[in-house]
Amino acid sequence: MDEIPLDIACPICHVEGQVRMLTHIDDIPYFGEHTQVTVLCHSCGWRQSDFIPAEGKKPGGCRILICKPEHIRSRVVRSSSCTVRIVELDLEVKPGTASTGYVSNVEGVIDRFMEVIVMVTRQAYTDDTEMSDIKKLQEMHTTLLELKEDPIPNPITLEFLDPNGSSQILHADAEMWELSDSELEDLPVGPEPAVFSQDDL
């Protein structure tokens, strides 16, 4: 992995001369060649990663009904512009200004949702939230936890919606489609990509 110093201040701690860019080219089965770009600060530890496909992609969606144990092991590529949804539970994670890309598997994505649900549930107890709302959170957590069982008692649909077309669920049972204009209107595109002049590199 190549590390290139960038002549810019860190956007978080504003220290000069500590920002580096790492690039790594990899070939992901069924997804093709892509470049992983990570910009990081050696002063405060801030980092932002993203995945750029070698070929231009159209805005795309990808979904899989998680109903078999093999689905939970499916590899995924999620870029910083991707919105992730669990349809039946009405859960959604949209990319924000600090959104970052990652390569994982379906189980890793489910674990991220579960961690947030646990955090929100703890806060709900602290805030004396209605028990009915806490019960809903606990039921969501149980449903996600059961996806790791065999057989899976309550299948759910995982969706990746990416305006840049750089995200995918890598399984033969996954369905892909090109996003419509109306779907694109409701989707954020994530953080602005870092822009560097040739003098910075």
Mean pLDDT: 85
User: Got a strand count?
Assistant: 12
Q: How many domains, in number, for the residues?
A: 2
Largest sheet properties: 5 strands, antiparallel
Radius of gyration from CA coordinates: 19 Å
Helicity range of the residues?
10-25%
> In percent, how much strand structure appears in the residues?
25-35%
Cα shape: globular
Q: Could you tell me how far the N terminus lies from the C terminus, measured between alpha carbons in angstroms?
A: 16 Å
Describe the structure.
- By secondary structure, the chain is an alpha+beta fold.
- It folds into 2 domains: 1-56, Single Sheet (N-terminal domain of TfIIb), CATH 2.20.25; 57-195, Jelly Rolls (Sandwich), CATH 2.60.120.
- It is 22% helix and 33% strand.
- It has 4 helices and 12 strands; from the N terminus they run βββββαββββααβββα.
- Strands 8-7-10-5-12 form a 5-stranded antiparallel β-sheet. The chain has a 4-stranded antiparallel β-sheet with strand order 1-2-3-4, with no helix packed on it. A 3-stranded antiparallel β-sheet has the order 9-6-11.
- A hairpin with a 5-residue loop joins strand 3 and strand 4.
- Helix 2 packs antiparallel against helix 3 (131-145).
- The longest helix has 21 residues, at 106-126.
- The radius of gyration is 19 Å and the shape is globular.
- The model is unreliable at 193-201 (pLDDT under 50).
